[in-house]
């Protein structure tokens, strides 16, 4: 694992994660139950093409956006939520930065790290009704690909799911590594990254828009000259 000391949502954070699969999208490659997504799955293909675009254009796709009022509230309240968790577990929490696998082919962000404990935390400060859903039903299996991906990349032994609202009891759930699930996820990520590299090479070979237009114009010119001067016409390049 390689740790990148960057602030989440900063320019550096966007740059280091561009063009590689990240844990929040691992559900597009594998279901919570461990079933691999079909290669022709529409959402999987869309994600692959988005990453190719990021690599070639060297900018995040889609562009960075401002969240809605609840997203912004979550960001504003996160520091308070993190402090309550820090007091609860009795250790300082550090910024999660960004982590990549040893080969740099995929990565993840975690909200906070617990130094010296090989543990991390995903921190939520959601709207009241979302927090109540976590309180009653838990976060559900939909987070499994992301959480197991985070544990796999980091090599950590425990991930804390922490949802906090100032007027309700907190939600604190622990997740440990599932080695069998991680092995399947790692294998699928390797295949996906191979496909990503292959598609990127193919797209780059097509040239950029200006080059394609120029080539089309040259072809039309050659065809016109061949019609006028005969099939043996060959202008100097």
Give a short overview:
This protein has 237 residues and is of the alpha+beta class. 48% of the residues lie in helices and 13% in strands.
Please name the defining characteristics of this protein.
Lambda Exonuclease, Chain A, alpha+beta, 237 residues, five-stranded mixed β-sheet, single chain, 48% helix, 2 domains
Class per helix and strand makeup: alpha+beta
The biggest sheet amounts to: 5 strands, mixed
Q: Residue ranges: pLDDT <50 for 5 or more in a row?
A: none
Which sequence of strands runs across the widest sheet?
2-5-6-7-8
Strand content is 5-15%
By CATH, the architecture of the largest domain is named Alpha-Beta Complex
Structure write-up:
By secondary structure, this protein is α+β, with helices and mostly antiparallel strands. It has 2 domains: 2-205, Lambda Exonuclease, Chain A (Alpha-Beta Complex), CATH 3.90.320; 207-237. The protein is built from 7 helices and 8 strands; from the N terminus they run E-H-H-H-E-E-E-E-E-H-H-E-E-H-H. Strands 2-5-6-7-8 form a 5-stranded mixed β-sheet. A 3-stranded antiparallel β-sheet has the order 1-3-4, sandwiched between helices. It is globular and about 75 Å long. The relative contact order is 0.14. The mean pLDDT is 87.
């Amino acid at each position: 694992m390689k740790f990148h000391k960057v602030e989440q949502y900063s320019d550096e954070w966007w740059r280091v994660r561009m063009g590689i699969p990240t844990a929040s999208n691992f559900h597009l490659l594998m279901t919570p139950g461990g079933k691999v997504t079909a290669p022709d799955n529409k959402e999987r293909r869309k994600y692959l093409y988005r990453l190719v675009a990021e690599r070639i254009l060297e900018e995040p796709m889609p562009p960075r956006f401002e969240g809605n009022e609840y997203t912004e509230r979550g960001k504003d309240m996160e520091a308070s939520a993190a402090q309550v968790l820090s007091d609860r577990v009795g250790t300082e929490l550090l910024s999660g930065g960004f982590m990549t696998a040893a080969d740099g082919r995929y990565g993840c962000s975690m909200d906070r790290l617990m130094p010296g404990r090989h543990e991390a935390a995903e921190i939520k400060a959601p709207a009241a009704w979302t927090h109540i859903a976590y309180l009653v039903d838990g976060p559900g299996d939909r987070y499994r690909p992301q959480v197991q991906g985070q544990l796999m990349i980091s090599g950590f032994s425990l991930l804390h799911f922490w949802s906090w609202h100032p007027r309700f009891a907190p939600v604190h759930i622990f997740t440990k590594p599932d080695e069998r699930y991680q092995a399947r996820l790692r294998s699928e990520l390797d295949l996906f990254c191979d496909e990503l590299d292959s598609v990127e090479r193919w797209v780059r070979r097509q040239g950029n828009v200006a080059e394609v237009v120029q080539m089309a114009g040259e072809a039309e010119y050659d065809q016109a000259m061949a019609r006028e001067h005969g099939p043996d016409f060959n202008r100097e390049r």
